[in-house]
Every structure is written in C-alpha cells, then in structure tokens.
Amino acid sequence: MVTHQVVLPRKVVERPIRQVGKRLIMALLVLLTTAVVVYSDREGYHDDSDGSVDLLDAFYYATVTLSTTGYGDITPVSDAARLVNIFVITPLRVLFLIILVGTTLEVLTERTREEWRLNRWRSTLRDHTVVIGFGTKGRSAIRTVCATGLKKEQVVVVDPSSKVIDAANAEGYAGVIGDATRSDVLKRAEVHKARQIIVAPQRDDTSVLVTLTARQLNRSAKIVAAVREEENAPLLRQSGADAVITSSGAAGRLLGLSVLSPAAGMVMEDLIQQGSGLDLVERPVVRGEVGKSPRETDDLVVSVIRGHRVLGYDDPSVGTLQLTDRLITIVRASPGTQVTPDTRPLPRG
User: Closest by alpha carbon to 47, among 93, 28, 55?
Assistant: First the structure.
C-alpha cells in the first residue's frame, strides 16, 4: 500500500479508460471498413481452400492484413483488387497500426513523463508555502494568502485523503497524499525548502506532532498553526510554531463581538477576508515616513512592528517611525493590494 504520493495539478483530460475505449472503437471501425472493401470486391480475391471469398473470409483477410501477419492463403489476383490494396487497404493498415501503437506508447511513457514532471517540480520549488490539511481552515487560509499575490504554483497541500488532494489539484495546487506527522511525507512536500507552513489538521494532537516535525526539518520557516482548544496553544508554541490561532476561541470572540455590536462584527469579518472591502496589510516603512509618527502617515496605522515587538500605534515607546520598522495598516482592498512577506520569525510567547 502506498503511504505517500506526490500529485501535481494537470490539465483536464479524458479518463484513460475512455481514451482507450475511443481508440478501440476507431480500430474496430478500420477493421470493419477493410472487411467491407474486400467483400465488395470478393471476385478479385482467391482463397486457396475453396477458391471463393465469403464474408467470414473478408473479415479474416482484413484481420491478418491489418495486423501485418499476412498468411498468404487469401490473395488479391485481379488488377482492381491489387489497386484497392495499394490505395485503400495499405493506408487503413497504417492507420490501424498508428492507433494501436499510439495507445501502447502512451501507456508506456506515462510513468516516465510523470517522473520527469516530479523531478522538474522538485528542482524548481523554492520558498513555497506548505499547507497541512485542506479542510475548511486550510482552504480558507491558503485562499487568503493567494489573494495577496501568492501564486498557486508555490503552494503544496499535504493531506491523508486522496479525494482532498484531488480537490486541491482541481484548484491548481500540488498535493502530497500522506500522514504529515511523518518526516518522509513532509520531505516529499519539500518542507525543508519552504518559506512558510500552515498547519491546519482536524486534531490538536496532530497539529502538535506536525509542527514539531516541520520545525526539525526547517529551522527558518514561518510556521502558523491552528488548534481547537486554547489549552493546547502553549504546547504548539513549544513545538516550534511562530503563531497559534485558536479556532474555537476566535469564532467565539467574533460571535460575542457581533452580539454586542453587529456592525463591529461585520467590520471584523471584512478585515480578515482579504481582497474585499477593508484589508489588514503589513508593509515596510518608506523613506518618506521616517521620522514621522504613525498618525502622520497616509494609511491608517494599527500597529508598528519593531524588532520582535508588536507595538500599538499610540504606544509612547514608538516615538517616530524608523526605516527598519514595519506597519500593520488598514487599507481599502484593490486588485493591486499585496502583503509584503516578512521573512523574519514572529515573536513567540
């Protein structure tokens, strides 16, 4: 049983069985056409056994002729039959062989082509994003990241379900079928060369094991993990996660905010949905903003990232902006709005 497998997205093509079926039907049509041609000119053929050619003899002759067997017991003897063999039977024979040989070659070379694609994919994949688990959380997370400019070719999904990987392939993502807690599966996803890793399986204990394994394989990648229960968040941080999101807690806080103020809940939901309405964007400080306070910038600054600290816009320790600072701002979403990735690890609590 195959424990892991890399599946790359491909163009939508017909199923192999349907392709072979079509070619088989074409071959049978060629055989039928040849038999009809021979039978219609049966007077120009000679059968060594009884001297005449009936319908069965015509199909027999078509079969041995198209397969290039050629026993010689039925032969064209008239000039018309020989001309038909030259200009009709021979082209049909070539077409018949092309259909059969083409199908055989395609079956034989499919594995070679797939291996070549995988080797080329591995050699060119760098600084990509690995998504562990393609459920609701993983799917929403990667769609949000892709909305900020990440190409789908730079995303690898890891999930134990082949149906889930098929769904990821349909959206244009490469996939690895297997248990992400195993290091050999993560190596198939080239985790050691990844820039960022999103850990979003269904179980908290799986999240901890995946995070621990991923951090051992890649010390510099940014790892963001999701857990259901807040009590498991510290364990995930100890395992190497840079940021931990508690899904149940976050959903509960958003529900509570919506109860207190439905409008505020709508604004918060808009902020966390990239590409529409208002967006939270992290960007570097430009030279024209150096020496200014966060309130003096053109954008609405929410926080200032200085070193490993995240400071509020009104924090007295911010003072004026520095060139090495990064800003978290609220902007109006537009097609050109992108989040500038920060390659530094996030501060761990």
Answer: 55
